[in-house]
Amino acid sequence: MVTLTWTSMNIDGYLNHVHQGLAKLEQLIININDIMENRIENNLKSLSKTVLVNLPQDAQTFTLDEFVEMQSEWIREESEKLKSKNYEVEGAVEDLIQTICSYQLDQHVEPISAEEIQKLSKYYNWSMYQALLHATKYSLNQMKERICGRRNMPKQILKPFFEVDVHLEGDTCTLKPTLEEVQSAINRAASHVLKSTKNVQNWNQKDQPEDQREPFYDWIAKDKEIVKVILLLTGSIQGTKNNVNKFLESFEKFNWLWKKKIDKELAHFNSTNPQLEDFESKLLNFTESENEVGTIMIHHQIGALSLKTNNVKTGLHKWIILWKDAYAKDLLKKA
User: 153-209, pLDDT tens digit by residue?
Assistant: First the structure.
C-alpha cells in the first residue's frame, strides 16, 4: 500500500499514468460508440425500414404476371440486402466484443465474464430478429392496405391495382384472370415476402454447414401478428366477390342476344306479315341496344380490381350485328 500526497516526489509520474489510463478509456469509449452507432444501430434501423414489396401508390394497374414478376424481382433484391446487413451487424457485434475484451484492465479489476459477453450477443441477436420481424410485418401490412384498404377508413376509395378482363364466352360473362387466380397471385406474393428471410441466417452458426444453418424465417413465420396478416391477405379478394358478381349480372339484360334463336325469331316476326315500318322499328331496337352497349364504361373499379370491358363490349356488338344483318337481309329480299 503506497500513500501519495501532493508533496510526494513521484506525483507527476502518477498523474501521467492516470492521464494515460483516461486517454485509453476515452479511446475505448469512442471505438465502442463508433461500432454501436454506425455499424450496429444504424444498420438495424435501416434494415427494419426495408420494404419487401413494390406497390406503386398511383393508379397504375398490373396484370397478374406483371404483379408476380415485379414482386419476385423486388423481393429477391431486398432479400440479398437483408442477408448482407445481417452479416454486417453480426460482424460488428463480434468486433464490439473483441474491442471490449482486448482492453487491458487493471489487475485489481475482475475481467468480463463469458456470461455477460453472451448476454450482449443475445441482445443484438434479438434486436436483429425484431428488425427483420418489423420489416416483414410492415411489408405485409402495406400489401393488405393497398389491396383491402385500411380497417379504420371504411369509406376509403382504393386505387385500382389489378387488371381483369371481362369476357363473353358463349352465353356467360367471365373474368380473365378469375378471382381465384388473383387471390392466388396475392398469396404467392405474401409467401415471397415471408420467405425473404429464409436466406438470412441466425447468428453463432459459422461452425455449421451453410445448408444446415437455422434462418430467422423459422422464428418470424411463427409470430402471431404475421400469421394474422397472412390470413387476412389470403381472403382479401373474397370481400369483392359479391360486388363483382353483381357487375357481371348487369350484362344479363343482353342475354336475349344468345338465348333466343335468330332464325326462329325472324320466322315468328315474318308470320305477323310485317310492314316496312315494323322492320324499321326492329332495326331501331338493335341500334338502341348497340348504343346502350357503347355507354358501358371501358373500366369499372371494384376495390383494387380494374375490370376492363372492351372484350365483353366487342362480344355484345358482334351478337347485335348478327341480329341486325339477319333482319336487314330479310328486308332486302322482300324489297
Answer: 555 567 788 999 999 887 789 999 999 999 999 999 999 999 999 999 999 888 888
The domain locations on the chain are 11-151+182-236, 244-334
Half-sphere exposure (CA, 13 Å, Cβ side) for 325?
6
Task: List alpha helices for 271-309, DSSP H.
Answer: 276-294
Which residues lie below 8 Å from residue 63, measured CB to CB, with a gap of 6+?
162, 163
The C-alpha torsion from 118 through 121 and 123 to 124, rounded to 10°, is 180
pTM: 0.81
For residue 139 the three cell numbers come to 411489408
Cα distances (angstroms) measured from residue 55 to each of 106, 142, 158, 189, 288: 57, 8, 13, 11, 42
Cell of 174: 367471365
Residue 37 DSSP class: I
The total of other beta-carbon atoms located within 10 Å of residue 202's CB is 18
How far is Cα 64 from Cα 70, in angstroms, rounded to an integer?
10
Burial of residue 304, with CB atoms counted within 10 A of its CB: 0-12 exposed, 13-18 middle, 19 or more buried: buried
| 134 vs 51: CA distance, rounded Å | 10
Each residue's pLDDT tens digit, 84-107: 999 999 999 999 999 988 878 777
Helix residue ranges, H only, the chain? 11-34, 42-48, 64-101, 114-148, 179-194, 217-220, 224-234, 241-249, 256-259, 262-270, 276-294, 310-334
Burial of 70 (0-12, 13-18, 19+ CB in 10 A): middle
Residue with cell 461452425: 207
Answer whether 189's CB lies under 8 Å from 143's CB: yes
Give the neighbor-by-neighbor strand order of the sheet with 299-302. 172-176, 162-169, 305-308, 299-302
Distance CA 308, CA 175 (A): 9
Q: Write down the residue that cell numbers 336475349 correspond to.
A: 256
